[in-house]
Amino acid sequence: MEKSLPPITVSSLDLERIEELLEMASFRRLPGIDALQGELDRAAVVDPEEVPPDLVTMNSTVVVLDEDLNSQSELTLVYPNSAQQANPVSVLAPVGSALLGLSVGQSIAWPVPSGRELHLRVLSVKNQPEASGLYYR
After folding, report:
1. Is residue 88 part of a domain?
2. pTM confidence score
3. In a domain, 137, yes or no
4. What's the half-sphere exposure (Cβ side, CA atoms, 13 Å) at 41?
5. What is the C-alpha separation between 82 and 8, in angstroms, rounded?
6. Structural domain count, the chain
7. Residue 41 sits in a domain of what CATH number?
8. What is the tens place of the pLDDT at every residue in 72-104?
């Protein structure tokens, strides 16, 4: 990863739920789990009611730019096995770990299993539970 990581913010509820996942034996050995834990460890933590509307939180739908491929994607950041959303990406997947806690305009370089680095920029947050008043979803 790049030496200078962007500041990130997570809600206390997202942090609690993700840390519970990380303690489960079925997820502990997944590639990238240590990187996700590192992100959680460095994140500023706020109450769900204090989450800014331009922040990528769990169950948010965002538009991102892959800066290397110059391609845009719309993704929904979900917990594992949550397929009810359009274009779901698990927080345990490298791209999900990279997105968690970023704000619109921020970018991050994140290693993926293929060995390359993914360079993602958040272009917009189209839907965020906290912005809709759904603080405990």
Report:
1. yes
2. 0.89
3. no
4. 7
5. 23
6. 1
7. 3.10.50.30
8. 999 999 998 776 667 899 999 888 988 999 999
